[in-house]
Structures are given as C-alpha cells and as structure tokens.
Design goal:
Lipoprotein, 4 helices, Protein Transport Mog1p, Chain A, 2 domains, three-stranded antiparallel β-sheet, signal
Length: 188
C-alpha cells in the first residue's frame, strides 16, 4: 500500500477512536444531560427532586382552579415535561386528600381511554400515590408519571410526561423515576 494511503487510514482510525473515547456521537442520556437534584420548599415542607436539568419557579402568585394557593415549578424540553406543584390550604377549606387528588387523574385518563395504574410508594417514609399512564392526544402517544403526597400540610403533585416513542424521554424518566426525597427535619 502507498505510504500516503496508509497514513490517511491510520489518521482516520486514530480520529475515530478519539471520538469514541470522548463520547462524541453517543446516544447515552447520561452523556447529554447533567443529572442533579433540586431542593424545593413550600410552607414548612421541603423535598429534593432528581432532575436532568434545573426547573424554574413561577414568580406570580397563583391560585389553583379549585381555590388553593400553589407554588409551581416546571421545565420542558423536546423530550420531557416536568412540573412540580405545591398546594397549601385555602383560608376557608382544607386540602383534598392524597387519594382524592390522585383519583382526579385516574378519572381523567379513563375518560380519554388511557391506560392507568395507581400504586402506593414510600418517599423517605412518606406514603405517596404513584399514577402511571399512557394516553393518546392528537394522534400521538404519551407516557405520564405522577406522584401525589402530603407533607407538613402541603399537597405535592409531581408530574413527568414524555412522548412514548421518544427514547431520550424514556431514558430520562428511568433516571429520575422514584427519586424524590422528602426532608425529615427533626422537631425541637
């Protein structure tokens, strides 16, 4: 073989191996996102949520449709929608129970013929309802994961949603699913 061809092949192979070692062209979600944790406080309650990127907080004072003061955090990308809501009691009415709030989602998914499942999970010893669903909207299928729990008089509602056929969204979901910590501060 000609020295020039041999040198070109060697250079290409060396370049390809450097790209592989550097992770360029990787489809691994861990290479694309900087996973971390975000601490969120509402009232006397504090949680830590595993995320692929930081969420922003709505700066406006928000009242939910059912009349509760609510803190809203969220973030969206092409692959994933993440939303965290923290409801506090209204002056004239108590918060709904965890079961009541989770069942609202179940009812809505059944109305649109979505597949839905409800489990009870523990988040640092705090019982939570985990609603998993798939549904179709405008011809596109989505996967939905929701956690609802009560801590120190704050009703938390955490939602992850992504297009079901989006592998990056599915991989992100696997990395953050069930990774919610409820801070257990000792009294006194």
């Amino acid at each position: 073989m000609n020295k020039r061809v041999t040198k070109a092949i060697t250079t290409c192979l060396l370049g390809a191996s450097l790209l592989i070692m550097a992770g360029c062209g990787s489809t691994n979600v861990m290479d694309k996102y900087s996973f971390g944790n975000q601490v969120i406080q509402s009232g006397q309650s504090e949680i830590t949520v595993a995320l692929p990127y930081e969420m922003g907080k709505s700066t406006a004072t928000i009242t939910s449709n059912d009349g509760y003061p609510i803190d809203v955090y969220g973030s969206a990308s092409d692959h994933m929608l993440i939303q965290v809501e923290a409801r506090r009691p209204a002056a004239t009415k108590a918060l709904p129970t965890v079961d009541e709030f989770a069942m609202k989602s179940v009812v809505e998914f059944k109305k649109i013929k979505g597949d839905v499942k409800v489990d009870t999970v523990s988040l640092n010893g705090v019982p939570a309802k985990k609603v998993s669903a798939t549904f179709t909207n405008q011809g596109k299928k989505f996967s939905f994961l929701q956690y609802v729990f009560l801590d120190k008089n704050v009703l938390w509602n955490i939602v992850y949603q992504y297009p079901t056929d989006d592998q990056v969204g599915a991989d992100i979901s696997k990395q953050i699913e069930d990774k919610i910590q409820v801070t257990q501060k000792k009294e006194g």
